[in-house]
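Hi U.,

Before I forget, here's the chain from the pilot set. I'm dumping it here mostly so it's searchable later in email.
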Amino acid sequence: MNRRLLLGLLAILCAACRQDMQQQPKYTPLKRSGFYPDGRSARPIPPGTIATDEVNDNSPVTTGSDNRGFLTTIPIPVTAALLERGRDRYNIYCSPCHAETGYGNGMITRRGYQSPANLHRDSVRNAPPGYLFAVISNGYGAMPDYSYQIKKARDRWAIIAYIRALELSRSAPIAGLDAQDRARLEAAR
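Structure:
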């Protein structure tokens, strides 16, 4: 009997400890608080804080265009480190659809999804870099926007620099090579 009485008391005590979300202890904005010395419940915003949804940087580096239209050159210095970063970001975000080679036959396409653009087509190769930046940022056709996944504009420019290098690696004219490189290419065939 004592055991049943103890279990019943324990059940009643546990039921009394329930606390729903709508009854949680919290501070209503701009109400007084006895917890903080200044008496305010809302804490002051630290100096220099910028809300990410309020950043309005309309520079050509972050938009891919200026008052004349799409940028015709990549607006940041193209270095080996930038190309390496671009290759890394391209392989993460772009290769599932466009493939590591850029021909548009990535794993997504092999699974039955719509084929993306072949990055070696003349229409893509001749497009200004600012246009490619806008497509990566805002999407186009079946391609979704990637501005949320690739937050830094510098990373998007790195991808574009890598795409240009990838295109050049597939379509560089042999006549543009010096004699030593041309001989090495001929020997490799």
